[in-house]
Every structure is written in C-alpha cells, then in structure tokens.
C-alpha cells in the first residue's frame, strides 16, 4: 500500500548552492525508492497558524521500506548540514492510512483486508 509524505519547507535563498546539492542528492534517492512527487506548490498564505512555509510537497512511496531507504540512507544522512543551510524550515510528516476510505468501504460491506484497501 502506498504511503504519503507531506513536506513543509522554506528555502534559504541565500544558500541556493546548498539547495541544489540537496535536490541533486535526494532526487535519485526518490527515484531509486520508487517514490513519486504528487505535487509541489508554493504556499500563498497562512490562514491559521504562526509559520508559513514557502513550499508544500506531497510524495507517495510504494511502502514503508521505500521511505526508510531514503531517510535512513547514508546519502541522506550526509546531507544534514547541507539541509540545515539550504532550508530555513524543513518538516516532513507521514500521513495516516486512508481511514476515511477504509471506514466507507467497511460501511459498504467490505470485510476482507484486501477489500478494505
């Protein structure tokens, strides 16, 4: 089952070389993991909350192992200092499995795990 990751980031425009290094390293890691960027968009404004990230990125991974292959890799680990310079804000979240879809399928009579999603 696919797993969705949401990243909220703010690029440090004073360190664009570090941003380039970061993206140049992570893009092949995502490709190797079979991950797919669903959307990447600028955040226009904050409606509720304190901080406004500049970008919202949604990435789908084929499974939990694929996420680990990126975030627990040596290559990603080496990027810690680069990432700290490249981004003013960098937060990554994993979404829950689609509970609303599962609940709807169950309400419609699906009982087998494969039928539930």
Automatic annotation (TrEMBL):
Signal peptide: none annotated. Coiled coil: none annotated. This is DUF1330 domain-containing protein. Gene3D superfamilies: 3.30.70.100. SUPFAM superfamilies: Dimeric alpha+beta barrel. Residues 8-86 form the DUF1330 domain.
